[in-house]
Specification:
Layout lengths: L1 H23 L1 H9 L2 H12 L4 H15 L3 H14 L1 H24 L7
Helix pairs in contact: 1-2, 3-4, 5-6
Amino acid sequence: MKWIITKYLLTAAMVVLVSETAKRSDRFGGFIAALPLITILTLVWLYIENQPAARIANHAWYTFWYVVPTLPMFLAFPWLLPRLGFWWTLGACTVITVVCFGLFALAVKRFGIELL
């Protein structure tokens, strides 16, 4: 139980670090948010918990493929925000991401990459 609490606290600390940094500097906050901090922590947790190397490698592999279709959201968000407001923009970006993910999953399936 101590281990799971430690994992929660360290992972939550990363999210707080990003949000507090973003309050002070848009650029540096964005830079830190773009770093794969949660993925790195997850890889560390998997390794420390003696997961097989294949599982750790697969996590990194799938994370790459799942990140790609989220990228259009980061372009749409700043454009939509002044037009729709925060909550509608967040909802629209969620829809954009789901649609992009579905289309991307279909596209990469041709190359033998199964995302769904």
